[in-house]
Amino acid sequence: MDSLGGISMFVQVADTRSFTETGRQLGLSSSAVGKSIARMEERLGVRLFHRSTRSITLTAEGTLFLERCRRILGEVEAAEAELSDAAGSPRGRLRISTPQLSGLIMPALDGFMAQYPDIEIDVDLSDRMVDVVEEGFDTVIRTGAQHDSRLVSRRLGSCGQVLVASPGYLRERGTPSHPSELVHHACLLHKFPATGRLERWPFQLAASEADPELPQTFVSNTIEVLGFLALQDKGLAFLPTFLVRDALASGALQVVLDDYINQTVTFWILWPASRYASPKLRVFIDYISQNLKI
C-alpha cells in the first residue's frame, strides 16, 4: 500500500476506533486493515494503537502522528481542491457536526444536497461537543459563546427562548403567574450532554427572590423530545422559538411567564482556521448562512 493510502487508513482507524468499521468503509476485511496498521508500525518503529479484545486506542506516539497525518491529508485535499476549483461544480466529502435538531438542520441539508449533488455529506447529528480539529471535521454548527482560537466562525442568527405549555395542560393544572408557582407544575428539563448539568430556566427575579426548585418531571439531553411532550400535555418546557414557531402560531402551545424571561440563543458555523477553505466548504458555509431558518 502506498504511504498516502496508509496514512488515510490510519486516520480512519483513529476516527472509528475499529478495524472492522474501517474495513467496512473501505471495502476491506478487518484483518487486512489490522495487518496494514501493523506494517506501518513496523516501518515507523513505534506502536500507534493499544489493542484489546474490545477496543483500540491511540498511544501517545499515535496521537502525535495523527495530528501530522491530518495536516498531510488536509494539504492534499487543498491541492486537489485548488486544481478542481476551476473545473466545475464543488465536489467531495464534507464532514460536519450539528446539534441534534433535525427539524432545524435537515431542511437546510436537504436543500444543500439538491443544489450540490456532487458533495457527499457525513453528518454527526448529536449534541456531543466534538473537537473539530482533532476529530477531522470540516465544519460544525454550535450555539453559545465560541472561544476556540483554532477555529474561524460566522454568526448564523439568533432567536428567543420561551417557556411553553399546551392549552390542555394549562386547563388541567392552571397557568402559573410567577416562577415560584412552578414547584407545583410538571417541568420538562434539558440536560447538557457534556456536563450532565440541567439547563437553568433564566428567570428575571428580584434580588431577594431565589430561583424556584423545578420538579424534574422529565429530563432529556436533547430538546426536540421536550417539545413533543409539551404538545402532549405533559408539562412546561423552555425552548427556542424556532422549535415551537408553528405550534405557537396554531395555538397548540402557549407562552407562559413571558414577563420573567428575556433570553436568546445564537447559532454559529465554525471551521478550522488552519485549513484551506475548499470550494465544497465555502459553498456549504454560504448556503447554511442563507438558508438555516433560525
Automatic annotation (TrEMBL):
The keyword Thylakoid does not apply. The keyword Disulfide bond does not apply. Gene3D superfamilies: 3.40.190.290, Winged helix-like DNA-binding domain superfamily/Winged helix DNA-binding domain. GO terms for biological process: DNA-templated transcription. PROSITE patterns: HTH_LYSR. It comes from the Bacteria. InterPro entries: LysR-type_TF_proteobact-type (IPR058163), LysR_HTH_N (IPR000847), LysR_subst-bd (IPR005119), WH-like_DNA-bd_sf (IPR036388), WH_DNA-bd_sf (IPR036390). CDD domains: PBP2_CrgA_like_7 (cd08476). Keywords: DNA-binding, Transcription, Transcription regulation. GO terms for molecular function: DNA-binding transcription factor activity; sequence-specific DNA binding. SUPFAM superfamilies: Periplasmic binding protein-like II, Winged helix' DNA-binding domain. Residues 1-59 form the HTH lysR-type domain. Belongs to the LysR transcriptional regulatory family. This is Transcriptional regulator, LysR family. It comes from Caballeronia sordidicola.
